[in-house]
Write a structure and sequence with these properties.
Blueprint lengths: L4 H15 L33 E5 L2 H5 L6 H7 L13 H15 L3 E5 L2 H4 L8 H16 L3 E7 L5 H5 L8 H16 L5 E5 L2 H10 L8 H22 L5 E2 L2 E2 L5 H5 L3 H4 L6 E5 L25 H13 L5 E6 L3 E2 L10 H17 L4 E7 L12 E2 L3 E2 L11 E2 L1 H12 L20 H6 L4
Parallel strand pairs: 1-2, 1-10, 2-3, 3-4, 4-5, 6-7, 7-8, 8-10
Antiparallel strand pairs: 9-11, 12-13
Helix pairs in contact: 1-9, 4-6, 8-10, 13-14, 14-15
Length: 445
């Protein structure tokens, strides 16, 4: 996803200092597209079990379009985005179509968001039309034979909360919990899984970079996110016993352990699974990671990093199930990537490393592909992640055009992953730094 480099580095530095660890060094600016690893045959894999949770991922603000006043509409109005959100992919009116696409894949989970800004556009006044929309989205997912995974906060809050200071304001905790309880009360009967806050570290970076959060309030914002997560976790389990609740982390290579001390470690006792978002890799011979912040389609997306990220959390939280809540790969406006990595090959390679992790005793239980369709990547429509591509800026019909990854994902789901003798299209990275030195010194070849 798009990040502003200076804000990201400042926030990483701040988080590392809060954690008592070293700050992350600024990544290099080389255009390298990948470090070569072993080119020989690598281990065979077993199929994933029949109860593995294959899914797709989306978010409200990024895909719905026709967005009401919110912090992100304010950022757009202030000229802090490249593109206006506009209609986005119009999930607001085409959700039934997109849900059917996911069903046709064989997906078992459909991740979606319930946007607070849409539900409560004015303080204390809820929009019944918005409730009716989400009612039908959740019911349609269930009717299609999939479990909803509902995200309560995917970086967006109402404009009136922005006027009150957003996460700078201690009163945000009470307001956030009041809205979240209403959502839980309404949709618990559908037995969804829940994501409380999407990628807290990345949320922090986005709020600081767009002016929504004063950097000096970083510790207070983190405290407030801990409070709302813990509060709604308890409430969900009262209303929906047996629910699966988590907050997904945005995995930052080499420094994730330090970042986790600021949030994840503080809520670990109230996580039913570890939710993990993984996109890009890093190694001493591959400095393309720097492109994540400006041209992410030039950043290496080596899928073997999935294995190391999963292994990292399996060691840190033994016994906790692990779920890849987001994984995908961007292109520039749907064009072939400079490194030639095709979406279908990326998906198959990702499945291979999931299977390797499972074979090695890592309790990975699910995988969501980001995303069902191309959508609004936090200020721009240029990065495209969709299984179905949508040219929002140039095609007023917003036609969903299947990429080659649609057939690949359908096959993976039907077969429980790649065949036993599959060889990844990209070899393992020579010295991956996804999990710091551990992933370099103990490689999975």
């Amino acid at each position: 996803m798009r990040r502003r480099t200076s804000a990201l580095l400042a926030a990483l530095t701040g988080l590392a200092l809060l954690a008592g660890g070293p700050a992350a060094a600024a990544p290099g600016s080389s255009g390298s597209t990948g470090g070569a690893g072993s080119t020989g045959s690598i281990e065979p894999v077993a199929s994933l079990p029949a109860d593995f949770l294959w899914g797709v991922s989306s978010s409200g603000f990024q895909s719905e379009g026709y967005s009401p006043d919110s912090n992100w509409i304010r950022y757009e109005s202030a000229g802090n985005t490249k593109d206006p959100v506009g209609t986005s992919a119009d999930f607001r009116h085409r959700y039934k179509e997109d849900i059917q696409y996911a069903k046709a894949l064989g997906a078992r989970v459909y991740r979606m968001g319930v946007e607070w800004a849409r539900l409560e556009p004015q303080q204390g006044r809820y929009d019944e039309t918005a409730w009716a929309f989400y009612d039908d989205v959740v019911a349609s997912i269930r009717a299609a034979g999939m479990q909803p995974m509902i995200t309560l906060d995917h970086w967006v809050y109402p404009g009136w909360e922005f006027d009150r200071g957003g996460w700078n304001n201690a009163g945000m905790v009470t307001d956030w919990l009041a809205n979240a309880r209403k959502v839980v009360d309404r949709y618990a009967k559908y037995d969804p899984s829940w994501i409380t806050i999407n990628e807290p570290s990345a949320y922090l970076f986005q709020e600081i970079s767009h002016g929504g959060l004063d950097p000096v309030n970083t510790p207070a914002a983190l405290d407030r996110w801990v409070a709302v997560h813990n509060g709604i976790y308890d409430y969900i389990h009262r209303v929906q016993p047996g629910a699966q609740v988590s907050s997904n982390v945005a995995y930052f290579q080499a420094v994730e352990a330090a970042i986790d001390t600021t949030f994840l470690d503080r809520v670990a006792h109230k996580l039913d699974f570890i939710g993990l978002d993984y996109y890009y890799s890093m190694s001493p011979t591959d400095l393309s990671y720097a492109n994540v912040f400006s041209e992410p389609w030039k950043a290496s997306a080596a899928p073997d990093g999935l294995y190391y990220a999963l292994r990292h959390y399996a060691k840190r939280f033994p016994g906790k199930p692990l779920y890849i809540v987001e994984n995908g790969m961007p292109t520039e406006d749907g064009k072939p990537r400079p490194d030639g990595f095709a979406r279908a090959d990326h998906l198959r390679d990702a499945a291979y490393w999931l299977q390797r992790a499972k074979d090695d005793g890592i309790n990975v239980v699910g995988y969501n592909y980001w995303a069902t369709t191309d959508n609004y990547e936090w200020g721009s429509y240029t990065p495209r992640f969709g299984l179905y591509t949508v040219d929002v800026k140039n095609d007023p019909t917003l036609e969903r055009k299947p990429t080659e990854a649609v057939a690949a994902y359908r096959s993976l789901i039907a077969q429980g992953g790649v065949p036993t003798d599959y060889q990844p299209s990209r070899p393992p990275t020579a010295c991956s730094l996804v999990d710091g030195l551990d992933s370099c010194l103990s490689p999975a070849n």
